[in-house]
TrEMBL record:
<keyword id="KW-0349">Heme</keyword>
<feature type="signal peptide">
    <location>
        <begin position="1"/>
        <end position="21"/>
    </location>
</feature>
<keyword id="KW-0813">Transport</keyword>
<keyword id="KW-0732">Signal</keyword>
<dbReference type="InterPro" id="IPR009056">
    <property type="entry name" value="Cyt_c-like_dom"/>
</dbReference>
<feature type="domain" description="Cytochrome c">
    <location>
        <begin position="28"/>
        <end position="128"/>
    </location>
</feature>
<protein>
    <submittedName>
        <fullName>C-type cytochrome</fullName>
    </submittedName>
</protein>
<keyword id="KW-0249">Electron transport</keyword>
<dbReference type="InterPro" id="IPR002327">
    <property type="entry name" value="Cyt_c_1A/1B"/>
</dbReference>
<dbReference type="Pfam" id="PF00034">
    <property type="entry name" value="Cytochrom_C"/>
</dbReference>
<dbReference type="InterPro" id="IPR036909">
    <property type="entry name" value="Cyt_c-like_dom_sf"/>
</dbReference>
<keyword id="KW-0408">Iron</keyword>
<keyword id="KW-0479">Metal-binding</keyword>
């Protein structure tokens, strides 16, 4: 019985030392914009002009494009009246709260996490 107890104590010491010696977990990867776009945006938007439009306009080449002016897409009255081009700052504000950027728009998506918005915007810039 004494040998079993000693064996168990030795095993516990070894397990504790092995646990202490484990390497730290790697840092989390930053969010991938393409994956985030597919998960959060692709339900309503495409990234191709050859695909039929969905609830929202295609977002290929959106950075630098005049807002509310994509040919062949019917925008809300509020969005069709604006006079600016999409840049990173406006896209970030838009993804955070579309109604604060343009009152009266119909887009309901809101993204609170700045790193998620940044990843999606980076992905959209890559499509230009």
């Amino acid at each position: 019985m004494r040998a079993i107890v000693l064996g168990l104590c030795t095993a516990m010491v070894l397990v504790t030392r092995v646990a202490d010696a484990q390497m730290p977990l790697p840092a989390a990867k930053p969010p991938d914009g393409a994956t985030l776009f597919k998960q959060q945006c692709a339900v309503c938007h495409t990234t191709s002009l050859s695909e039929p439009a969905r609830q929202g306009p295609p977002l290929v080449k959106v950075v630098g494009r005049p807002a509310g002016k994509t040919e062949g897409f019917k925008y809300s009255e509020a969005l069709s009246k604006v006079d600016f081009a999409w840049d990173e700052t406006r896209l970030d504000a838009w993804l955070s709260n579309p109604q604060a950027v343009i009152p009266g728009v119909t887009m309901v998506y809101r993204q609170a996490k700045p790193e998620t918005r940044a990843a999606i915007i980076t992905y959209l810039k890559e499509l230009n």
